[in-house]
Request: fold
Amino acid sequence: MEYKIFGPGGMPDGGIRNQLKDFFKLDEAQRKTIREAFLKNEFEYSWRTPLPEAVAASSLLPEQFTDAVDLIRSLLYAWREYSLQIADIERDLLLLGCSEHDIDLLIEFLGMLSVVRESVWARYYKRIQQLDGLPTMDNLNIICDARAVFGGFPEGVERPSPSYKTLLTLTPIVIMEIISSDNYGQRQRTAVQMNEQQFEVFQRIVSRAQEQLAILKERIEHSPSFT
Reply:
C-alpha cells in the first residue's frame, strides 16, 4: 500500500493518526483560530515565544494548537513538495481511516490555506536548517543565588583553620543552565556560574549580538537576492 503524502517509500506512524483524531475533535471556532494563525503567519510556537494572542484567548490548549499545526504544516508541505493533487490527499486520508465527512472537512480546511502553501513549504526548510547541525537550545534557566563565604580553605586539609566555621559574608552569583538537544533527540545539560561582573559582561555581549542580528535580518529582508 503506497501513501503519497509521506513521500516516496514513506509510511505513516501512530502519531499522524492521533493528530487526525484530535483535529477532528476540535470545534469550528478552534479550527478557525488555527486557520487564521496560518494565514497571519503566526503558527510557529515554542517555549521561546508566547502563544499568538488569538490562540491564547481561545479555548485551545497549547498542546492542541501545536499538534494541529504540526499536522496541517506537514500536509501543506507534502502537497507542495510532492506535487500532489487533492485526490491524492483524499485517498491517503481514506487509507488512514478517516470518514468521508472528516475528509471533506480537512480538504476544505486545506483549500482555505492554499494561498500560504508555498510560504509554509519554504518555512519548513528554514526550520529544518535551524535544527540541523549543532545541538539547539531547548530551554534556558538563569538563577540568581547568594553563595555563603566561610573562612578556612575550600578544600580539605589535615589541620583546617578554625575560621572555616566563620561565616564571613554572602556573595551574589548567577547560575545559567542550558538544556540542548541534537537532531537525534539526545539531551544535554550545561551549567555555568558567573559573578556580578561576569554577568554584566555576558549581558553586553548578548546586547551586541542582538544588534548584529537585527542588522543581518534587515539586510536579508531588503536584499533582492533573498526575495
In short: The chain has three domains: 14-131, 134-193, 195-227. The helical segments are 14-25, 28-39, 53-56, 62-81, 86-95, 100-112, 117-131, 196-222. The chain is about 50% helix and 15% strand.
